[in-house]
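[audit] Reproducing an earlier prediction to check determinism. Same input, same settings, fresh worker. If the tokens differ from the archived copy the diff job will pick it up downstream; this log only records the rerun itself.
[audit] input (271 residues):
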Amino acid sequence: MSTIATPVPSPAAADREPRPVPAPIPFGRLVSVELRKSVDTRAGFWLLASVGIVGLLATVAVLLWSPDSQLTYSTFSGAVGFPMTVLLPMIAILLVTGEWSQRSGLTTFTLVPHRARVIGAKAAVTIGIAVASTVLAFAIGAVGTVIGSAIAGVDQVWDMTPGDIASIGLAQTLGMLIGFMLAAVIRNSAGAIVAYFVYSFVLSGLTELLAQSQDWFGDLRPWVDVNYAQAALFDGNLTSAQWAHLAVTTAVWLVLPLAVGIRVLMRAEVK
């Protein structure tokens, strides 16, 4: 009678145990990594450094050349905040496009295959930088107000309310998110930067010219011109109509393109 041999497991197979599934990288760690990415490159470092340098130069310029009546909190804060409005979106752009233009996405998305978590961390860093820059601008503005009034021998003028500060912070955040959106859609540093300047400056100039030459567009402009609607945030005390203009233009020019850009980022091949 023939017998069937039973396979004997090897010692290695017998000792092998199922490996535990590694825990996902905490989101806070992803945020800290993305924050380091925004400053550990030459471009990111000098962009942040230039924000501080330009802010100090703007404060000194106000001290030197503004009349005594203009040495107010709003003047100093505005002088510091305007360069930030122009420069900081570049950081958001480079933070996103670097994964494709610098090919770092090959490493990033290998270590963290769930792209949504990486994109969420980049968005959190973008908003965090916007909030921090707003706080910095108003802090420098406060110092400038104290020093300027002491040098000129005039009373300190604190002519901004918490609502005004919150509105400007919202405007700064929206500007950063516009840079984030353009980077997500284009995924190329140079192209996204050019698109940002066209979006923020050329487009607003064209709509201003059209509003002055065409009466029908003057009435329609608040509903279709995102730069015009967001500019009202710097004046503070928005009316209900202005909030409606801001909501509509932001949805059309920021939210919808951002949704498309994120969907593309989730599927775009990293080469």
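[audit] rerun output stored. Observation attached for the diff report: The chain has a mean pLDDT of 84.
[audit] end
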